[in-house]
Give the backbone structure.
Amino acid sequence: MSSNPVKSAEKSPYILVLGMGGTIAGLAREPKGNPLQYEAGQLGVELLLSHVESGLPAGIKIVSRQVANINSRNLSDALLTQLGIAVHDSLADLMVMGIVITHGTDTIEETGLFLQATCGKYAQTLGKRVILTGAMLPANAPKADGPSNLLDAIRWASTPIDNCPGGIYAVMDGRGCLAMDLAKRHATAINAPLRDSPSSSVGLINPSWLSGIKAVQAAWNEDLPIPKANEWPWVEILTSHAGARAQTIVHWFGSDVKGLVLAGTGMGGIHDEWKGALDQALGRGIALVRTSRTGAGTIYSDIPEKDTPGCMASGTLSAPRARIALQLALNAANQEKLNGKPLTWQDFFARIADLPEIR
Ligand code: ASP
């Protein structure tokens, strides 16, 4: 095992493991005490790999690289840029067979969508799998789930799985899905269900799941550009709730905020108190996306009421995913403007929001 930089001098193909931190690299303060009292991002990725060395698939060479070692609640735009570039450049490297990313589960949802939207087509075209994984228990907890997740991810990245295309996946708890479908949906439960769509066992790929993956990949025609570290448009998530006030929207006027993701009630309903202020926001050129605070289901245009022109429904995107999608769409539209092409942020956003659902 070696921790050479991505452009390593390796002469034979290998799996690249990129470390981002998270609970998988975390340490409980008292290993035999409460495993929920721990610090995330304490162990280096090379050490995590040394814990699983005996279980690695025979003949597979591993190279690791620490991109960050954080609690993923602190994930930043700049780190996403760094990770996106590392993944993109590594996919281009002929020696890299596949990529595994160890990541915190708090914001694995954002990273999954980001990598799908910026590197998904590239990975698919090259036939290489990028696998995100993490853990619910810190590395020194008696029943730590990180080692088995890491091994499963390395297997998924390295095994020629019949018919399973290259792309951006996530593996947790013995099951794999598209990374854009993985999210933390329980605050504390150990091995909580983390997926928003059907998944497949790591050992036995389910054919109907595979046809769902292929439908999503067929609909995803072109990756969006990775924003430069300091060029991510500022987008906030605001939640509609009982007692909502117009000031929550008006507050952003005069700031550099370029977009608002509105986590509405039910089917994406917005409190009447916000409506006038939202019209003003649109008039000021602030991009608006409507999603649901319920955490599941599809948000359709003009349901429950007609959308103000310019405001987009989020489709199946949760609020954190819609936020990343809107940032990428705004950035792509800015670049289009520079190239003299007329595509809008709505055109780019719709490409992500309209991807088929895997059932
Ligand atoms: N707070 C941790 C993180 O996201 C949680 C985890 O990894 O499960 O880094």
